[in-house]
Write a structure and sequence with these properties.
heterodimer; A: alpha+beta; Dna Ligase, domain 1; D-amino Acid Aminotransferase, Chain A, domain 1; Rossmann fold; 3 domains; 6-stranded antiparallel beta sheet; 4-stranded antiparallel beta sheet; 12 helices; 36% helix; elongated; B: alpha/beta; 2 domains; 3-stranded mixed beta sheet
Chain lengths: 368, 260
């Protein structure tokens, strides 16, 4: 789960990481008032994507009139398909120097990885490409936590004169990273200004698997992905027209790839997870078929914990409401029972994944 | 597991000590079991909140092989578990995996029994049901397996592709290996150097070509970013290194037939 910049900055502030004074608004009129109070301000679109600056979603304003105009312009914008309806208006801090500080998980080393660079303000991927020698990386043992000498070394590499205050920020960010179960905690840029060091941007991504012990609530969007998640399934919308329901993430990805190989385009990824039952299948079919682009649906189940007869029951419950062709492949636990139950319905039963993929592509395209 | 030949000596559930399930005694803790029955493997089905604790308990109990099936363990818990494993004599397979099967001998996990048959193909995979699919196709083709190992779909897990490949390389019963990878991380790329040194042929199969960057595809570890961890990059890296790549489960079977 990604946090908005203002949420992440709230956390930073509470944990003692210096951030500029700022207020979240949704009415452009408020921007003027804030500018009256702060003087020069920066207005930042609050959307979950990078590249806000390039898209024009960040603006500086030196008086209330300018602040109002910029706020009004940005509030109407869409950035990479995301509508801007909230702005963070902050006291402007002029950066003399922009640095990078980020903590992430090194999957291969199986531990937290801190990365710093005296060149900040641009993506770390970009820095890694153009000047990799300017990135210092340090692995942290998750059992012992971060050592003072490590923090000192990192801070010194950023700025010798201000290394004490930077070291303090690195320590605090590591505490945030651990305390909030982050997969990413990033300050870019970490700016050296006339008023001191500040985190001018804040990015936090929380591990979805740890949300049970963290106090975050996901924003309700009413999307199909959200509905699926609430039902314990995983759904990702794609651009094509073949609806897909599969148990297991690997088999689901393989099924999508096969559909592509047969010349089709999947409309979605859906993993109904191990142990899918009748209710789960009903929900899955309802979610996938509610995407109006869908012209045919493939159901590919390899039962281990999942029982094919229960899957069949769930499918049968929804068949009357479907108006697109259904291609079904059931294998594994209770496969015979499941297939027998489905035989009397107007569905296409096949015995392999490949056959299912080629059949669903044919049926989905037959009306063209 | 019993049907498959696994000798199950005890169960552990805190608070259920003293009871029995199918005639197998249940204990309150791993240390109580260790004193009485000497198990050398443990399979963990504990819910995500408590799973890391169960793994720590198994490590401290001196269990050689720990297989964790649980999906949804926080990644910070797994980083701590993996650091702790480093100094221990235990091996962890998983989490978020279907376990290990050696047809004709035993199974520690949840793969369906009926699909396996003994043979000389080793399988190592980040997936569950996709592995069943491949095992099933191989068995129907008359090609049995020496062992199938699901290393799990989480970003941080106990055993890597390279470690399992190393075991297959040493195993006289294994003649060729199928490696099933997916988007996210660099576990596939990290295994290339080892594969090139192996004396046995390896067939790679990597899924997720249709996955958009930045989206988690079911498995917590299956997330590619633009320019890192995509299926096409992994496939290209395998092909560049001269490793056989199959584009579908059916093609794995054809390639296996070519080799043997």
């Amino acid at each position: 789960m990604k946090l908005y910049e203002y949420d992440a900055k709230e956390i930073f502030k509470r944990k003692g990481i210096p951030v500029p004074e700022g207020i979240l608004i949704s009415d452009p009129g408020d921007a003027g008032n804030i500018a009256r109070k702060f003087g020069k301000v920066v207005i930042k679109a609050q959307v979950m994507t990078g590249g806000r600056g390039k898209a024009g979603g960040i603006a500086k304003a030196s008086n209330p009139q300018e602040a109002y105009q910029s706020a009004q312009r940005i509030l109407g914008m869409s950035i990479k398909g995301l509508h801007v309806n909230k702005l963070l208006v902050e006291e402007y801090k002029k950066p003399d120097k922009e640095m990078y500080l980020g903590i992430t998980i090194d999957r291969a080393a199986k531990c937290p990885l801190i990365m710093v660079s005296p060149e900040g303000g641009i993506d770390i991927e970009e820095i890694a490409k153009t000047s990799p020698q300017k990135i210092m990386k340090m692995h942290i043992n998750p059992l012992t936590g971060i050592h003072d000498y490590q923090v000192r070394t990192l801070a010194k590499s950023l700025n010798k004169d201000k290394s004490v205050i930077i070291a303090d920020i690195i320590k605090k960010l590591y505490r945030v990273f651990i305390g909030y179960d982050c997969t990413l905690a990033e300050i870019n840029p970490l700016a050296d200004t006339q008023d001191g060091i500040f985190a001018l941007d804040a990015k936090m991504v929380i591990d979805d698997n740890a949300l049970f012990r963290q106090d975050f609530r996901e924003e309700e969007t009413g999307s199909l992905e959200e509905t699926a998640r609430k039902n314990g399934m995983s759904y990702v919308e794609l651009d094509g027209d073949i609806g897909c329901i599969v148990n297991g993430a690997g088999l689901a990805m393989a099924t999508l790839d096969m559909i592509k190989q047969y010349g089709g385009e999947p409309a979605n990824f859906m993993d109904v997870r191990a142990g899918a039952n009748e209710e789960q299948m009903k929900n899955a079919l309802t979610i996938v078929s509610s995407n109006k682009k869908v012209k045919a649906i493939i159901i590919n189940i390899f039962g281990g914990l999942t029982k094919c007869d229960e899957v069949a029951r769930g499918i049968i419950d929804v068949i009357p409401e479907l108006n697109v062709p259904l291609v079904i492949r059931l294998a594994g636990t209770n496969e015979e029972e499941g297939r027998t139950m489905l035989e009397k319905y107007h569905v296409t039963l096949v015995s392999s994944s490949e056959e299912a993929a080629s059949e669903v592509v044919r049926l989905g395209h037959s009306d063209k | 597991m019993q049907e498959f030949g696994t000798n199950i000596v005890a169960g552990v559930t805190p608070g259920k000590g003293g009871s029995e399930v199918y005639g197998i005694p249940v204990f309150d803790s791993v240390s109580e079991v260790a004193g009485k029955t000497n198990p050398n493997a443990s399979v963990i089905f504990v819910p995500p909140k408590f799973a890391a604790d169960a793994i720590f308990e198994a490590i401290d109990g001196g269990i050689e092989l720990i297989v964790c099936i649980t999906e949804g363990i926080p990644v910070h818990d797994m980083m701590r578990v993996c650091s702790y494993l480093d100094g221990s004599s235990s091996r962890l397979i998983g989490p978020n995996c279907p376990g290990i099967t050696t047809p004709g001998e035993s199974k520690v996990g949840i793969m369906p029994n009926s699909i396996h048959r003994p043979g000389n193909i080793g399988i190592v995979s980040r997936s569950g049901t996709l592995t069943y699919e491949i095992i099933d196709l191989l068995s129907k083709n008359g090609t049995g397996q020496s062992a199938s190992v699901g290393i799990g779909g989480d970003p941080v897990n106990g055993t890597s592709f390279v470690e399992v490949l190393g075991l297959f390389e040493k195993d006289p019963k294994t003649h060729a290996v199928v490696l099933v990878g997916e988007i996210g991380g660099t576990a596939e790329e990290d295994s290339i150097g080892f594969i090139k040194q192996m004396s046995k042929p390896v067939i790679g199969y990597i899924v997720g070509i249709s996955a958009p960057p930045g989206k988690t595809m079911g498995h917590a570890g299956a997330i590619a970013s633009a320019g890192s961890g995509t299926a096409l990059e992994k496939i290209a890296a395998f092909e560049k290194a001269g490793i056989l790549v199959a584009k579908s489960p059916a093609e794995i079977v054809r390639k296996v037939n070519d080799i043997l």
